[in-house]
């Protein structure tokens, strides 16, 4: 199915606000990656400053924190502790 420039601009705008990379966005929307990539190259203007936007996704909620002591002991925490709690622990 052929898409108009206007239709693809709407899809590209949705992708840009989704926070997903191109491949994941295409997979979720059942869009052929090669076609989407073509339209992105055609419709997205390159910033004149040479800079590009970088999106950082939130870290996993279940990320672990590890404290290594000089003795070789390890303390693994299953969520990020507060700075105050760590300060008290390391006194």
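^ Assign residues to that structure.
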């Amino acid at each position: 199915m052929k898409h108009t420039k206007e239709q693809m601009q709407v899809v590209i705008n949705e992708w840009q606000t989704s926070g997903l990379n191109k491949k994941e966005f295409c997979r979720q929307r059942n869009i052929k990656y090669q076609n989407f990539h073509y339209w992105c190259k055609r419709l997205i203007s390159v910033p004149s400053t040479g800079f590009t936007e970088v999106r950082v996704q939130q870290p996993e909620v279940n990320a672990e924190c590890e404290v290594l002591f000089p003795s070789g002991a390890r303390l693994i925490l299953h969520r990020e502790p507060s700075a105050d709690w760590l300060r008290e622990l390391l006194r």
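Residues 5-18 form the longest helix (14 residues).
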